């Protein structure tokens, strides 16, 4: 789905509605809206509405950025990316002094307005500046109301602070994973920077930096997991947060897909899990798209990996569709007749898998490895049927109401049927046996100590039995301290009241006894009164018990609530015909969409770019898929 960013087309780039045969090279700064609540064919050029940016302060034409979607607030968040090096309609790009400063922007779907967002966040461990890194993998966890963005890098056109960097050669890698929590019950959105490991295999390979990979949220365990797949990384372990020169980003290599990395949101632990082939494992690749589809009964979770780039140096691409099925961690080849593209996004609408944007490096133009010089002349979308496991020419709105089934080849690998019932529910070997407790919440988690160190020098979470994630730890500590302090203060107040009562009674009784009794009996009666007062004191205060088996349950903040979806809004805008070239360049988060849905694209490149999209619910049965397409010159 094209959007703000660079566009390139044969003889130029962007279409002109008054002269459809004319194309020019330029940028698209608009949101494009695709209605997936009605049938369409992939050749239809008039499906997109445009929403233009009217505020000149809003960053224009950002490439390789990420989009998050908040169902709770009904907003889109734009973060990361770099200013396009291609000007609009063939004009020169913005000079470096005009490159926008780093920051996170939000788009209110109801008012259709952009505003600076990060000034209103509750920031934790983010430092003074939120970098605008590109090539980050990202995804949403809609059931938690949390979105994630993982690592990436900054370069000359990331923001004006890097104007002295040499173009295309100087970079700075960013460590950590940002998490934006917009769940209900928070006073304001909470942005947390979560530390990431240096290595998960004893420094045999470095965990990051990672660019142009994929990340999806899988609903297993208490809060689900994030699965990191592929992308490319540096040959040698780099210095995070420092300028690296001499084409440091040019010697990158694709990450081996015989392992994937897992983040357990509940505990905050990272894991490195081996994968297995049925019979083969796909080659390493980047700039693919991922989408997760669970079996109807939840017995398996199937991650679709569509196409992608298998060589970052010459941009050669793959045409395959693979499924990584969990929890067996088996790779299964589903399709090998797909169009060979990279930099696209994919989204599930019932049993329709809609592929948006992308670059076809096998078509014309020469360049590195057949690097794309021309774009498709048709609509920038393809449809893969999850019912027939084939590409089709038409989007089927009736299929949007159907539950996607388990692919036949996956059933052959893990057993069961199209509706679930997988027999194989664990891998051949757990690379870390603690993962079995993550995937099976019915098992009682033992204490666990992570063996890795974080890239920023910090320690990973300590010994835990489940417990709070790094996003909640600080808030929970404050809550527990409040409970303890309140209990102590309340106990002190109760003791003071009882002590005051005792003093008052003693004085009163003493005076009465002095008036009524003889001096020789006064001492004994005072002792009796003291004994009565001790009994009264003991009745008011609970006795201390040293029984270690008695547990006191303290109140703790509730976990992030699952949101059903806030009221939505079908985005309206300029109905003029947008460019319909296939565009793209990036990773994607996907979610199920209802048949009365709209898909929105933001920021992209045609011809040499890629796409990102974020999904969420909208009014009634509406769900908005919000995305952007980006790329590089």
TrEMBL record:
Which species is the source of this protein?
Pyricularia oryzae (strain 70-15 / ATCC MYA-4617 / FGSC 8958)
Chain segments annotated as transmembrane: 479-505
Q: What is this protein called?
A: Kelch repeat protein
Query: Looking at the keywords, is Membrane present?
Result: yes
Region called Disordered, residue ranges: 1-22, 452-471, 510-547
Report the superkingdom from the record: Eukaryota
Q: Please list the residue ranges that the record marks as compositionally biased, kind Basic and acidic residues.
A: 1-12, 511-540
Task: Name the residue ranges with Polar residues bias.
Answer: 13-22
Keywords linked to the UniProt accession: Membrane, Transmembrane, Transmembrane helix
């Amino acid at each position: 789905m094209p959007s703000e960013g660079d566009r390139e087309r044969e003889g130029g780039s962007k279409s002109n509605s008054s002269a459809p045969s004319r194309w020019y090279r330029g940028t698209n700064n608009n949101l494009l809206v695709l209605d997936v609540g009605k049938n369409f064919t992939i050749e239809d050029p008039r499906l997109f509405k445009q929403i233009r940016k009217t505020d000149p302060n809003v960053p224009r034409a950002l490439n390789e950025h990420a989009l998050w979607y908040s169902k709770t607030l009904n907003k889109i968040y734009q973060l990361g990316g770099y200013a396009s090096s291609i000007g609009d309609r063939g004009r020169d790009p913005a000079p470096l002094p005009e490159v926008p400063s780093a920051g996170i922007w939000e788009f209110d779907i109801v008012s259709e307005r952009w505003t600076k967002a990060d000034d209103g966040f509750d920031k934790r461990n983010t430092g003074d500046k939120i970098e605008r890194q590109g090539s980050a993998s990202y995804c949403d966890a809609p059931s938690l109301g949390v979105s994630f963005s993982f690592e990436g890098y900054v370069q000359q056109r990331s923001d004006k602070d890097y104007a002295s960097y040499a173009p295309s050669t100087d970079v700075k890698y960013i460590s950590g994973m940002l998490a934006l929590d917009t769940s209900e019950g928070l006073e304001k959105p909470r942005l947390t920077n979560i530390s990431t490991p240096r290595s998960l295999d004893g420094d045999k390979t470095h965990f990051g930096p990672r660019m142009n990979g994929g990340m999806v949220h899988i609903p297993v365990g208490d809060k689900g997991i994030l699965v990191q797949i592929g992308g490319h990384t540096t040959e040698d372990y780099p210095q995070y947060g420092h300028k690296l020169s001499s084409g440091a980003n040019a010697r990158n290599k694709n990450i081996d897909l015989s392992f994937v990395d897992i983040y357990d949101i509940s505990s905050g632990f990272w894991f490195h899990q081996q994968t297995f082939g049925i019979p083969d494992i796909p080659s390493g690749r980047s700039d693919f798209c991922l989408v997760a589809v669970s079996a109807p009964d939840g017995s398996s979770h199937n991650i679709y990996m569509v196409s992608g780039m298998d060589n970052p140096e010459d941009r050669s691409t793959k045409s395959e569709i693979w499924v990584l099925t969990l929890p067996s961690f088996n790779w299964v080849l589903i399709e090998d007749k797909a169009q060979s593209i990279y930099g696209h996004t994919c989204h599930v609408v019932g049993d329709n898998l809609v592929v948006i944007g992308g670059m076809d490096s096998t078509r014309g133009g020469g360049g590195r490895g057949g690097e794309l010089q021309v774009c498709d002349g048709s609509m920038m979308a393809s449809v893969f049927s999850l019912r027939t496991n084939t590409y089709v020419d038409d989007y089927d709105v009736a299929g949007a109401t159907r539950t996607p089934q388990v692919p036949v080849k996956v059933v052959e690998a893990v057993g069961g049927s199209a509706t679930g019932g997988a027999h194989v529910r664990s891998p051949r070997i757990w690379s870390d046996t603690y993962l079995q407790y993550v995937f099976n919440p019915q098992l009682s988690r033992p204490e666990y100590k992570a063996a890795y160190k974080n890239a920023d020098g910090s320690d990973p979470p300590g010994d835990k039995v489940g417990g709070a994630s790094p996003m909640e730890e600080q808030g929970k500590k404050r809550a527990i301290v409040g409970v303890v302090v309140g209990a102590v203060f309340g106990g002190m107040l109760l003791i003071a009241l009882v002590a005051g009562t005792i003093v008052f009674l003693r004085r009163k009784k003493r005076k009465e006894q002095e008036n009524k009794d003889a001096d020789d009996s006064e001492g004994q009666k005072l002792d009796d009164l003291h004994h009565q007062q001790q009994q009264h004191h003991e009745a008011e205060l609970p006795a201390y018990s040293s029984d270690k088996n008695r547990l006191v349950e303290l109140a703790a903040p509730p976990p992030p609530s699952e949101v059903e979806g806030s009221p939505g809004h079908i985005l309206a805008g300029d109905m003029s015909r947008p460019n319909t070239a296939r565009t793209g360049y990036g990773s994607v988060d996907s979610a199920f969409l209802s048949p009365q849905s709209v898909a929105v694209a933001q920021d992209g490149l045609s011809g040499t770019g890629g796409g990102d999209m974020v999904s969420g619910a909208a009014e009634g049965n509406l769900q908005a898929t919000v995305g952007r397409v980006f790329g590089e010159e």
